[in-house]
Write a structure and sequence with these properties.
With 292 residues, this protein is of the alpha+beta class. The protein has nine helices and five strands.
């Protein structure tokens, strides 16, 4: 066997190992995140490249903006844009961040589509939409250079033309959009870390991205906070805690009809925000106790 043939065999083996690792992580994460679609499959006729999907006045953009109306009444284009960039960035963070945190892989988006799916709501299923990302794995040589800086740069590069286009289309400033994107990345990483059983590493990597001075994702006020509450039950009093992502940006939901501030909103006074998050944690504990 020639040396070149041996090297080809080695590359194929490395590529196979990389793909196997990626598939294993996706299979582990997919049940926890039904709100986003991700796969390593061929893009297919219904998938478009990012440049094709995010065309100004294109069907993909308009469908994404219109879908945000299901979350509140009385949205204008700026509020729709704020919700869309947060919505898309969160799903992008879950799709790409899962491979990075779970296998150290910095993947790229090969294609995407905006698809229908059914999600649980109480005891019934409701129709919803999500982005489905067809992911491309890096070459083995490129994979050796994967780190937090590389991931953050790739994430920002993917979003940059979308941010610019939404600014033109809806008038929402680039700064406001990037803060929402940073919130989504930090929140997505925290969710992935919970599933993988390593919140600390997930948060550290997220903060390394959003606190880096030379990135548009820089967000001064974005942070994590450990919220604790005391619960009394048949076993006595005990303290439970949960880490929350505190936003650095605002989705403008409070400007909608009958809208209000989100529980982790940057505009809330710290004591009010903490009280809201404590109430959320109490409600979460109550629901978990009631689950079969």
């Amino acid at each position: 066997m020639s040396l070149s043939h041996e090297r080809q065999e080695e590359r194929r083996a490395d590529d196979g190992a990389l793909r196997g690792s990626a598939l294993g992580v996706l299979a582990r994460l997919r049940p926890s995140f039904p709100e986003v679609g991700f796969s390593l499959e061929a893009t297919g006729d219904d998938c478009l490249s990012g440049d094709e999907f995010w065309v100004e006045e294109g069907a993909g953009l308009e469908a994404g903006l219109a879908y945000q109306d299901r979350f509140a009444e009385g949205m204008d284009d700026r509020i729709r844009a704020a919700h869309l960039i947060a919505f898309y960035s969160n799903q992008l963070a879950l799709a790409l961040g899962g491979l990075y945190l779970g296998a150290g892989i910095v993947a790229a988006v090969r294609g995407l589509r905006f698809e229908e799916f059914s999600r649980p709501y109480g005891e019934r299923l409701v129709a919803a939409k999500r982005f489905h990302f067809s992911l491309a794995l890096p070459a083995v040589g490129d994979q050796l250079r994967a780190n937090t800086d590389v991931f953050g740069e790739a994430f920002a590069a993917h979003l940059a033309p979308i941010v610019a286009m939404l600014k033109r289309r809806a008038g929402l400033s680039s700064g406001a959009q990037w803060r929402l994107a940073a919130d989504s990345l930090a929140g997505g990483f925290l969710e992935i870390g919970r599933v993988l059983g390593d919140e600390e590493t997930a948060m550290a990597r997220a903060l390394a991205i959003v606190k880096r001075a030379d990135t548009p994702l820089l967000s001064d006020k974005l942070r994590y906070e450990d919220i604790a509450v005391e619960i009394g039950d048949t076993a006595g009093n005990r303290t439970v805690s949960r880490i929350y992502r505190v936003r650095g940006g605002c989705c403008l939901y409070y400007r909608t009809e009958d809208g209000s501030f989100c529980d982790s909103c940057v505009l809330l006074p710290p004591d009010d925000r903490r009280a809201r998050l404590q109430a959320h944690l109490l409600a979460l504990q109550a629901s978990q106790r009631q689950s079969p």
